[in-house]
Design brief:
By secondary structure, this protein is mainly β. It has one helix and eleven strands.
């Protein structure tokens, strides 16, 4: 029996992995949070691997994203430097106004420098980043929500005692 090799899935896979959603401007919000997705807009993290994302606060009347599939990327705060690229297919799903799980940002993107898992260090002197969640792969305004966050030790080393 011959072994089966799976190739990476990029833009073509979106047609097979996610249902089509209406391409209308999106409402709602996205924010960074802790691993339990309970803190709204935590915004300061020890390492890049500790950043999670969620959509709109989980209470009645909150600004939730519409149901569907979403692309994710990470940039510097200005949006000019792409640090974590979208994987070529939507990686975040919203059902009934809620993210279907607490998503770790590190797992949703590939580094802009070498396409390995995660996102590159920011050149921002304040160690700030911006996460983008979009219904479109090109992250057009109106179809995208963003949130800025800061990582104290972006290289992943533990903080000194």
């Amino acid at each position: 029996m011959k072994p089966i090799f799976l190739l990476p899935c990029f833009a073509l896979c979106a047609a097979f992995t996610a249902p089509a959603q209406a391409q209308q401007p999106i409402t709602g919000a996205v924010f960074t949070t802790d691993s339990a997705c309970e803190v709204v807009n935590q915004n300061i993290y020890e390492t890049r691997g500790m950043v999670f994302i969620n959509g709109g606060p989980n209470h009645a009347g909150s600004a939730r994203l519409p149901d569907g599939w979403y692309y994710v990327q990470v940039t510097d705060p200005s949006g000019d430097e792409i640090l974590g690229v979208a994987l070529g297919y939507p990686t975040v799903q919203v059902v009934d106004g809620y993210f279907v799980q607490c998503y770790r940002l590190w797992d949703l993107v590939a580094k802009g420098s070498d396409f390995s898992q995660g996102y590159d260090l920011t050149s921002n002197p304040g160690k700030e980043y911006k996460v983008w969640v979009s219904s479109l792969p090109d992250f057009l305004p109106g179809f995208t929500k963003t949130d800025n966050f800061k990582v104290i030790k972006p290289d992943g080393e533990p903080l000194p005692a």
